[in-house]
Amino acid sequence: MSVRLYAQYCRVLKDIPYPAEYADYEWYNLPRRMDVSLMPYGMMLGEFSSQIANDINALVNYTRRLQAWEVVMRPLGEKRILDALVEFVDPLTAVALGMPYAIRARFLYAAVHLNHQANQVRDGACWVDKLPRDRDIRAQHLDQLGEGWKSYADFRQAMCRIFDAAYQQSTRQYRHKYNHQVPPGIALGITGIVTRIVEKKTGRVSYIHGEAPPLTMVSIVQSLSEQCLCCREAFEQFKKMIGEHEAAIKAACGAKGQSGVAE
């Protein structure tokens, strides 16, 4: 049964379009020789940009595969749907639905460090390395460090569309519930049979009985497809911000000539 399902999936996958273009690699153009103080910027840029591209491209691939599975599962009965879920779809869905959260966090982490390093060029002798530890980095640090770069606002706006409130609502908080509570089912299964409610004003506790239907494959694919486009837009705005950094670094390297530089 599993072999036949997978063979059918492979046939369907050939005709499924990609939900977004792949993110590209090694698109930046830093000077070949830079001041030694800027070497961390160059090394971080190479690592961070590749990892973000890898994650976006993985999300694009996972979303396309889930769309193919949606087509395959559409005419199946519950037993065969369960076979497909257990063997193929559930693990893929669990990873894919959590990836927008991870991608947004990677953008935040990368932008904080790269703006921090690029600010050396802008601030000159006034620059002080007071960045908090990685585990303490928050959105407010990004706003503080990005201020002054013209392209930052567009990047920030694009980044905030990833894993936004609309996505969380459409997936019924799947990522959070998968990690901390009980997630909604995928295609099959009823959850939320009993929910504990605490009133904010009075502290009164009550228990509500009900049923939450599963997420449909159609809704999952639609939400993830929208997130793929949001990730790609944020990536393009990220590249523009890095381009602004590059221009400032090149200007600084040109002004300093060949002194104090390293390859």
Strand order of the largest sheet: 1-4
Question: Largest sheet at a glance?
Answer: 2 strands, antiparallel
> What structural class do the secondary elements suggest?
mainly alpha
**Regions with little confidence, pLDDT below 50 for 5+ residues:** 258-263
Q: Name the helicity range.
A: 55-70%
Rg, Cα atoms, Å: 23 Å
- The overall pLDDT average reads 93
Note down, in words, how this protein is organized.
By secondary structure, the chain is mainly alpha-helical. It has one domain (2-186, 217-262). It is built from 8 helices and 4 strands. It has helices spanning 2-13, 39-73, 78-123, 139-146, 152-159, 165-170, 174-180, 217-256, and strands at residues 34-35, 194-198, 205-209, 261-262. Strand 2 and strand 3 (205-209) form a beta hairpin. Helix 1 packs across helix 2 (39-73) and helix 3 (78-123) packs parallel to helix 4 (139-146). The radius of gyration is 23 Å and the shape is flat.
